Each structure stands twice: as C-alpha cells, then as structure tokens.
Amino acid sequence: MSAAHQSSAKPSRSLPDFPGGTSVSDLCVYDWDTPDGLHGGTPHLHTLSTEAYVVTAGRGEVHTLSSAGAARDDLEKGSLLWFTPGTVHRLVNHAGLELSVIMQNAGLPEAGDAVMTFPDEILADPERYRRAVALPSEGDEQARAEAARTRRDLAIEGYRTLLAAVEREGPAALQRLHARAVELVRPRLDEWRRIWAATVEAETERTRVQMDALAEGDGAHLSEASVIRGTPRPEPRLFGMCGRLQVWSAPETLVDRQSPR
Predict the structure, then answer these.
(1) Where are the beta strands (DSSP E) in the chain?
(2) SS3 for 260?
(3) Is the pLDDT assigned to residue 256 strictly greater than 60?
(4) pLDDT tens-place string over residues 23-41
(5) Is 142 helix (H, G, I), strand (E, B) or coil?
(6) Distances from the Cα of 46 to the Cαs of 51, 112, 147, 249, in angstroms?
(7) Are 40 and 34 a contacting pair, CB within 8 Å?
(8) pLDDT 10s digits, 60-81
(9) From the CB of residue 167, how many other CB atoms can be counted at a distance below 10 Å?
(10) Distance (Å, whole) CA 158 – CA 153
(11) What share of the chain is helix, strand, coil (3-state, %, to 5)?
C-alpha cells in the first residue's frame, strides 16, 4: 500500500526525510476483480508502522481484522482513518477509489515491515514467503501486473481463512498470524534499526536540539529556512500491494539533509 505499500521498484531518488519521519504517497486502488467477487488490493499488516488513509476520490471500503474483531469501514472522498501495527487491512474498490497514504516510520514498510496474509504454510516458511512476496523489477507492464495480481490473490486466499477463524473464535485467531509475522521480520531488525536511526530518530533529535537552542534564545536554524519541492515519479506508476503508486522525488542536492545542529 504507498511508499507504504511495497512496490516492485524503488523510486530513483526519494524526498528528504518528511517531517516526523513519515512518508506520503498517492494510491489508485486496484480495480481488478478478486476470487471472492470484489475488487481491490492485497490484505496485509504492518509490524511497526501506523498507516493512515485520506480518501481523495471514488468509493470503496477497508476491511480490517484487529483486537476488536472483523470490521468494514466505508470510504468516500474526505474519509480519514488509520490503523496501528498488527491490524490486517484490505482495500476494496467500488468506483475509482484513490487515497493519500501517510505512513509512519518512512523506510521500514519498504524494507519488509508489511507482512501479507498468505496461507499459513507459506508464512511458516521464510523462503517460500520471500518468493511469494517478490515482484519482478523488470519486464513489460502486463507481466508485472500479472505477478502483482497473483500475489494479491494468494494473500486473499489466506485472508479468507483468517477471516473465518476470527468470526468463529474472535480476535484470538490472529495470534498465529502475528507470531508468523514476528518470525518473518526478526532477521531484518538490525537493518531496520539503521534505517530508523537515520530517519525517524534523526528527525526527532533534530527537533530536540532546536528546542534546546530556542530555550537558550538561539534561533540560528531559522536562517536555514527552505522550501522542498517534490517531483512526481515518471509514469507508469509502481505496482504496490493495494494499487498503483505515485511517489515523489527531489533533486540530488536535497536528498542528503544535514545532521541535527
């Protein structure tokens, strides 16, 4: 789902760290039909990151599985909702559904924070999961679309089994999925800590340093005021988990921000 929803390719040059260590992307939700008679994207959860949807066009729903059980929320222009780590979410497109996606912990979702709801036998095997989640970075649009659709349908297969279990047993039925997710991401924690330290932690430290300076009457950082202008990544859009993604890039001179001062 977004810089938030794992894509088949990374943008050539991302924007500098967005305020608060978040990421923003524009998402046109898939209108492909699904095996259960709907249209939409790939069910998944995030292990660390809260995600927000701001609907900018069209109509649809988001189906969730959380500590509150199963739920469905209508989506239309102006709708806003967000969900915390561990919430399984699935976007359903009724008519031209488009979203702005705001994702916590920029860099982590792209590094594997999202875990798709594949059948349990795939989730239990890291190598099978790796093969199932990967999309080709090259090839024509049709071949890449077919791979994204195959991945989505596999996740819907697992989601339908999971939904039935939650409806039968309640939220406790999510525990196996959560345990599988933990085991899948654990090998990546060292990499994630490096990403987090260079983005979210660095942005937080920047604010702390500037706040301390203001308390001393020092506003030197204000003289560095600047405007960052993002450029949409060239078409075609990326294939994400939930739809076609538009992300933004920046001139090379803006990518490497100064350390906190």
Answers:
(1) 23-29, 44-46, 51-66, 69-76, 80-83, 88-103, 114-116, 231-232, 238-239, 243-246, 248-249
(2) coil
(3) no
(4) 889 999 999 999 999 999 9
(5) helix
(6) 8, 9, 22, 24
(7) yes
(8) 999 999 999 999 999 999 999 9
(9) 12
(10) 9
(11) 40, 25, 35
User: Helix, strand, or coil here: 56?
Assistant: strand
| Tens digits of residue pLDDT in 163-185 | 999 999 999 999 999 999 999 99
What is the token pair recorded at 93?
Answer: 């497109």
- 117 token code pair: 């709801």
Peptide bond preceding 236 in cis form (omega within 30 of 0): yes
**CA 93, CA 33: separation in Å to the nearest integer?**
9
- Judge whether 51 and 99 are in contact, CB under 8 Å: no
Burial 13-25 (b: 16+ CB within 10 A, else e): ebbebbeebbbbb
User: What is the predicted pLDDT for the residue at 222?
Assistant: 96
Q: How many residues does the chain have?
A: 261
Q: Are 94 and 190 in contact (CB under 8 A)?
A: no
- The pLDDT, as a whole number, for residue 251 is 57
